[in-house]
Design a protein that fits this description.
This protein has 433 residues and is an alpha/beta fold. It has three domains: 118 residues, Methylthiotransferase, N-terminal domain (Rossmann fold); 232 residues, tm_1862 like domain (pyruvate-formate lyase- activating enzyme, Alpha-Beta Horseshoe), CATH 3.80.30; 54 residues, OB fold (Dihydrolipoamide Acetyltransferase, E2P) (Beta Barrel), CATH 2.40.50.140. The protein is 33% helix and 23% strand. It has a six-stranded parallel sheet, with helices on both faces. A five-stranded mixed β-barrel has the order 15-16-17-19-18. It has a three-stranded parallel sheet with strand order 7-10-11, sandwiched between helices. The chain is globular, with a radius of gyration of 22 Å. It binds S-adenosyl-L-homocysteine, iron/sulfur cluster (SF4) and FE3-S4 cluster. FE3-S4 cluster (F3S) binds next to helix 1 and helix 6.
Amino acid sequence: MSCKKLYIETLGCAMNVRDSEHIIAELNKKEPYELTGELNKADLIIINTCSVREKPVSKLFSEIGVFRKYKKDGAKIGVTGCTASHLGKDIIKRAPVVDFVLGARNVSKLSKIIDKKHAVEIDLDYDDSNYNFGEYRTNPFKAMVNISIGCDKSCTYCIVPATRGDEVSIPSDLIIGEIKKAVKSGAKEVMLLGQNVNNYGKHFTSTDKKSNFTELLREISLIDGLERIRFTSPHPLHMDDEFLEEFASNPKICKQIHIPLQSGSTKLLKEMKRGYTKEWFLNRCKKVRELCPEASISTDIIVGFPNESEEDFADTLDVLERVRFEQLFSFKYSPRPHTQASTYSNQIPNEVASKRLTKLQKRHTEILDEIMDSQMGKTHSVYFDELKSGGKISGRSDDGKLFFVDGSEELLGEIKDVKVTKTSRGALDGTII
Ligand code: SAH
Ligand code: SF4
Ligand code: F3S
């Protein structure tokens, strides 16, 4: 008999991407599943959801409609992730075709509930932080490893603390063990995951050896065979000098850093409860540029937060001009349930927010074009991790740029120096030197 087939769709952030790998590993513990991209062939359809804005929540319900239409008789539908956490049984009320709902940080309960019709497991206090999932990685060359789960902040726009619960740091010996396993099976690069990675070490559940994020980075960098360390996301508030000095001086730490701004206005940052000012943010970016001029900095920005005036928005544009982020993820503010900001008066009209978003993105595109054009002829160290069609292979430079070169399988898992021969906004072409 052929094995069962799984169709899995992942919305949201890197955490969710890793959770989907955990879901696959968890299923395989009970019986083997083969992945399929064809809905009508699947025995199990899972959508791993995001709640951070209203859009991915609407997407969940439109996708359930599609699943219902194309699924074969007897196939099950499961809803997992952040929207599962925050809507729980209401998902089944609204869409009875859904067989089970499993919240973020409850993944290890999957095999227990998969055969229970209309099971709902969304416990926010459940400690799913000990890697009891089994092994599954989409890309053997790069490993994602959680270092913490949940979030201990209460940014007033953000639903994540209500979907992923309180912050728990994972003991460093477990993290090291997990990375060593990945390295043994071919990974030279690790991406450390957490909502606030550099708040690591504040909330252990056990009394095991405690370390902070900088110490953890040092310890991880001693692992033989591991060449590259990335992490997402650090919080600007916790970027102390010691951490930035380690970032700049440790050769295994990739020179790419995400510093989520959210707004350039100190007034709005206060209303968002971010805990830092415009000046602090600029000072941290300046420090990165001084210590490590080759580093690329990316950011997240929200426009149209309640009460955002033209002056507040001008502050955001000002930070963009000064830091010249290599990558920008920008969003229109979306009021979320369980958040303080959704109750604020002075919500910004949609047309105003749209205009600001367009202006911000247009200016960033110009900056990005300049940055990418200036790469012509430069040499980067590229780690090749994916075969592409047309005799191409792709990889990332140390500072996170996407590269394409002519090449085949033998280059997979190799790090080579590549000279840029063609630039574009999204990626660079090059030749190995
Ligand atoms: N822990 C990370 C953020 C996780 S959510 C941090 O603190 O940076 C990812 C991004 O989604 C946020 O950085 C923010 O820019 C955006 N976001 C969160 N809530 C949002 C909302 N209600 N509306 C629009 N964007 C939002
Ligand atoms: Fe959300 Fe703030 Fe926590 Fe990030 S730090 S996940 S934005 S509450
Ligand atoms: Fe990530 Fe979305 Fe949840 S951004 S933490 S999957 S709400």
